[in-house]
Amino acid sequence: MKTTPDMGTRRFGRVNWLGVATLAEREMRRFMAVWTQTVAGPLVTAGLFILIFNLAIGPRRGEVMGVPFMHFLAPGILMMTVIQNAFANTSSSIMVAKVQGNIVDTLMPPLSAAELVAGYIIGGIGRGLLVGVVILLAMVLMLGISVEHPLWVLVFVLLGATVLGGLGMIAAIYANKFDQMAAITNFVITPLSFLSGTFYSLEALPPVMQTLSHINPMFYMIDGVRYGVLGVSDSSPWLGLAVCASVAVAILLTCWAFFRSGYRLKP
């Protein structure tokens, strides 16, 4: 004789794969619905960066770390665009849901804290990967760059999108209004991404600035992608892998703790 499960009993096994896939699909549909803003916009911005640097100083800059300046610049812009989009996707999704008061629609379904984190992170990674693939193809076709270590590129792109997607979730959970979210973006995320070696090699910096740059995890993300594309880097890719993986684990655990406790999410 069959018995009806008690109220509140999970009916999906250890992991609610359907729920995670549905949340991830919702996040991807959300940014694809406004693709001109979320995908085309960042691509145009990345193209303008490369065009302006090429017109302003590209021909006269000479080589950096043994490669042409534009080749050196392109992987940094690629990774900076990926991580900024991953951050924007998760932060805007949660922030809008909080402000509109419909975050409860995400918290009520039978999804654990880890499953909620996974769904949001997959959405952020999806947006970052989409933008990154298009920029990478443009680099190969327009600049004639050949990718030296594709696996390293993929690993650092995934780790970078995971870290910034997680940071986007933390920022949106902490912020109670759009002004606070904008302050976090303008005074934390943007400076860290611009001061991460995107436009320069650490060899050009004084020792103190080099030391400070090594504290910035975004430096290792961009340096890792540069190694994957060009085969040159300021630091060991293995060190970058260890740093990025450690930061990713710490951030994901923080996100899990926030969702589990309902910090600034539940009344």
Shape: elongated
Sheet with most strands: 2 strands, antiparallel
Unreliable residue runs? none
Strand content: under 5%
- How far apart are the first and last residues' alpha carbons, in Å? 41 Å
Taking all Cα atoms into account, the compactness measure Rg is 20 Å
Biggest sheet: strand arrangement:
1-2
Overall pLDDT confidence: 90
**Total number of helices:** 11
* Estimated helix fraction: over 70%
**Content-based structural category:** mainly alpha
Helices and strands, in N-to-C order? Answer: HHHEEHHHHHHHH
Please tally the β strands and state the result: 2
What is the compact description of this entry?
The protein is mainly alpha-helical and 267 residues long. The protein has 11 helices and 2 strands.
How would you explain this protein's 3D organization?
With 267 residues, the chain is mostly helical. It contains eleven helices and two strands. It has helices at 17-32, 35-56, 58-61, 69-100, 104-107, 113-142, 150-174, 178-194, 207-213, 217-230, 237-261, and strands at 63-64, 67-68. A two-stranded antiparallel ribbon has the order 1-2. The mean pLDDT is 90.
